# Entry
Amino acid sequence: MPTAERNEEAYELYIGKRDGTLSGVHAADPSAHVLTALVKRTGIDPGTVDDVLWGCVTQIGDQSSNIGRFAVLAAGWPEHVPGVTINRACGSSQQAVDSAAHAAMAGQYDLVVAGGVETMSRVPLGSRRTTGQPYGPAVLARYDNFEFNQGVGAELIAERWGFTRERVDEIAAGSHAKAAAAIDAGVFDDHVVPVEVDGTDFTTDEGLRRGTSVETLARLKPSFKPGGVIHAGNASQISDGAAALLITTSERAAELGLTPIARYHGGAVSGADPITMLLGPIPATEKVLRKAGLSIADIGVFEVNEALAPVPLAWLEETGADPDRLNPLGGAIAVGHPLGGSGAILMTCLLARMRGENLRYGLQAMCEGGGTANATILELLT
# Structure
């Protein structure tokens, strides 16, 4: 059986803030941009790509009718190259990577691109629900007609673990500080693709707020309950962005003269209580470590999506991971969370840290709406 490897290139766009530089751009365009960059820098013939697996959450309007297929066409790739759109909520593009690797390991694909996009400025979060209620009466009855809400779930998590307002704000301020340091050090330079929008070069993540402190965050009002701990400053930002990764087998990489830099070491998915909703990374992490035959101490760096600040805090409490290894380059609180693209974006961050520090193993986990989660382990090769 061939070994699935993540190949030489993984690219993302700089992340645009809500109503920012990318807000006037159709979702197919940033998707095409990262696909084009992938081809340019690897030298692959796009006509040899078996499939493009593309994450996208809000599949309505600009992002409807299989945006994965239209990304391929917008990039000018041959018409025979297919594309498919995947929705596992916030983990959509991480699922795209997992599924691409599984297909390569099974011998179904030799060369596949995985990634995703979300333009939340143009296709607002929750806009799919304007035409109906997604859960159905049986689901609502099972949970006593609870109104599922990630912010409420985050408040419940904070209550359960006793996280104070100051503690969750420390996570948020730290995210901005770490992201700023990483950007200033050029950590992402090899992975992020500049783009020209309306004659202006877009070359920075727009969501970053330098100088953010616990004191400045303390002025913000709670968003979900009086006296609560969750507010706009310690939650992930509404954003626009895209990312793409090339996945192949050892044999195909050798044929193409490409040097793989990381191996897909394992993946797992798990469900969790849909009321708290955001705790799935904890059992998913346990599951993927068990499958991989590794311990939490074996992992050199962790990327746990900062959907809301209590998520990585609860994950730390339950896994016992070294907090210094968690989200060392900042996260979604600082730079944004373009839903369908976030899994692939986090994976580029994970790889950047692994390469920069020569860390053998890295683990990524994403909480997801409805109470599911993906966890993936990569192994550094070069």
In short: The first strand starts at residue 4 and ends at 13. Residues 1-8 have pLDDT under 50 and may be disordered.
